[in-house]
Amino acid sequence: MNKDPHKDSNTAPTGTVRAYHQRTKHQFERYAEGPGSLDWDAQPDPFRTWAGTRWYGLPRQTPARQIAWSALAAQRAPEPFDTDNLSACLRLCVAITAWKEYAGNRWALRAHPSSGNLHPTETWVIAYWVDGLADGLYHYQCRDHSLEWRASSVTASNQPGLWLGFSSITWREAWKYGERAFRYCQLDMGHVLAAVAHAAALFGWQARLVSLPPEAVAHCLGTDRAEDYAGVEAEEADVIVALHAGESRDVLFPPLNWDEWSGVPSLLDPRPLYQWPVIDEVAAASRGPLPVFHQTEVDRPAPEARADELAATRVLLQRRSAQAFDGGSILPAPVFRRILASLLPTGAGPVWRMWQATPRVHPVLLAHRVEGLPAGLYILPRSESGLTGLGAALRQEFEWASADAELPLYRLISARAERTARNLSCHQDIAAMSAFTLMFIAEFDAPIDADPAAYRHLHWEAGMLGHCATLEAEAAGWRGTGIGCFFDDAVHEVLGLTDTRWQVIYHYAIGMPVDDARLLTLPAYA
Ligand SMILES: Cc1cc2nc3c(=O)[nH]c(=O)nc-3n(C[C@H](O)[C@H](O)[C@H](O)COP(=O)(O)O)c2cc1C
Question: Could you report the per-residue pLDDT of 368-404, keeping only the tens digit for each?
């Protein structure tokens, strides 16, 4: 009898997560379940507002910090917690960075990318002793770069603190992408976390994830207040990040209880046409603790400045996803190596200082046009156990030839792979016209069996990897684009993966962008 090994545990959280992943795979012959048609005029509002509460406009000037991109992670004296610095930090990670206009349509772009530009992630600010701001919990309103007061506590904290909290409105993604949307919300969350770590580093602040049970995160952000959300789209609490101004090893906890609440959330979609109950099911099944983080202090020597380097603020503000690549430019070897180095957990980059967990996600590359690198399939295992595990799991005929003197880069096969890249990435040209396309392969069964919450965290890790790659490319005049649409099992077949011990969870293409001159670019905040 051909027995489904997951069937018996389908009602347990692990079974729910595994079943969700399986049913939301895109196949050549069938895409994951989604809406049959879309009415773009009925897109859910990308901006949630909180009415009937106090509103604080944040300073609007563009952050001007003359720190070179390569010096972003260097040690520097922390800036004070005040509204100017908070405002500038938000501008660099979660704010609008430009409006685009074409044929009478306008849409906002933000400092971090988002699947379908739908932006499910909401940002919360918890401020204690931040100069110029009353203590409390605020919703960050990125449309006009302001704070909407949400809650306060009479039990004053005895120490200054600044935290950013995040929640996801999954309906914003599900509206377009149907059942697969939960994956995209998690990948987006990873991008946001990486954006926060980069922005905070510029102020000498360290971003640290606060290990709280999921219900405590929801309670702290107020997303568990069913009475407040009655009749509007729910928010799924994700995580709280402490911004540390000192070198304290203990992560500072935010206040978990508030005495006074205020504000009414807006409805984003008055006429939802579809319902995707599996999203709520997988969200519930994957609520759980964060991975264990080591807090090792890594050396952060002052880097050698490179000639004609961009300022870090400029890189963060100008980041965009390429809509097309030129399919001809050769990526210089030093840029390629810097992009790969930014993905390794051993570096001093701000993302991996924040996410000091065992690496579970490893990039496989389809290299098309990289200086000095024969076209082919490559792999960059991010840990010794990744190297061993993937060595055993991948197709036995792969070469595993060392392809770099310093980086753990191995060639698996030499071959032109543009068509494969396009086919695997839902037939999207960007995967073929790039200089190289990454496929992020996650260790899957073991972490999810240990704790289904790993399903979220694997996607966060992949989102963070994509973000590191894209920023490093952007800094060198190249560009990246996330690819959430790929044929899961076709990728597994190419790699020789025959079970679910390893699964592909994200693609990312890096190349020389071709800009669409028809689009008008307008300033973020007038
Ligand atoms: C998780 C994720 C998946 C994405 N998937 C695709 C994709 O499959 N194809 C594509 O062309 N762009 C994809 N994108 C890029 C988004 O369309 C882009 O981020 C969005 O339009 C906003 O534009 P911006 O990144 O320039 O701000 C993806 C982005 C993310 C974060």
Answer: 999 999 999 999 999 999 999 999 999 999 999 999 9
How far apart CA 163 and CA 207 sit, in angstroms, is: 9
CATH dotted code for 320-511:
3.40.109.10
Phi, psi of 120 (to 5 degrees): -75, -20
- Among protein residues, the one with the nearest Cα to ligand 1's atom 7 is 483
**Percent of the chain at pLDDT above 70?**
96
For ligand 1, the distance from its centroid to the CA atom of residue 111, given in whole angstroms, is 12
Backbone phi and psi for residue 56, each to the nearest 5 degrees, phi listed first: -120, 115
> For ligand 1, is residue 483 a contact (CB within 6 Å)?
yes
pLDDT for the residue numbered 4:
42
Residues 479, 470 contacting (CB under 8 angstroms) = yes
Contact partners, residue 275, CB within 8 Å, separation at least 6: none
Q: How many CA atoms lie within 13 Å of 275's alpha carbon, on the beta-carbon side?
A: 4
Domain with CATH 3.40.109.10 in the chain: 39-61+70-285, 320-511
Q: How far is the CA of 496 from the centre of ligand 1 (A)?
A: 28
Ligand 1 center–CA 109 separation, angstroms = 11
Q: Does residue 470 have its Cβ closer than 6 Å to ligand 1?
A: no
Domain 39-61+70-285 CATH assignment equals 3.20.20.140: no
